[in-house]
Amino acid sequence: MDSIFGNGEYRELMKGVDCPDYATYITNYWWNASGGTHTALRSTCIFEVTTGSTLWRRGGPYVSGLPKVRTVIRIDLPSF
Q1: Is residue 42 scored above 60 in pLDDT?
Q2: pLDDT at 45 over 70
Q3: CA pair distance 30, 41, nearest whole angstrom
């Protein structure tokens, strides 16, 4: 992502508010137009959520199944 031209700067995400407690957080780095780099700690989080439905289910003598899971990547950019 090009943070200099239109995307803004990253903000730190709050655990339990923006992302669940079990999320994995990533630190972002970007180049500032005036020179040098900037760092935003915990500004991207990745987590999985169960959608509430099943991906597949098998009945009979060997019952098994797999829940439908979605991967979420969240980045909080300020609005302009």
Answers
A1: yes
A2: yes
A3: 12
Verdict on whether the full-model pTM lies above 0.85: no
Q: Which residues of 43-75 are buried (b: 16+ CB within 10 A; e: fewer)?
A: bbbebeeeeeeeeeeeeeeeeeeeeeeeeeeeb
E-state strands within 20-63? 24-31, 37-58
> Greater confidence, 8 or 77?
77
Report the candidate in 34, 38, 46 with the shortest Cα–Cα distance to residue 10. 38
The structural domains of the chain, with segments of one domain joined by +, span 8-75
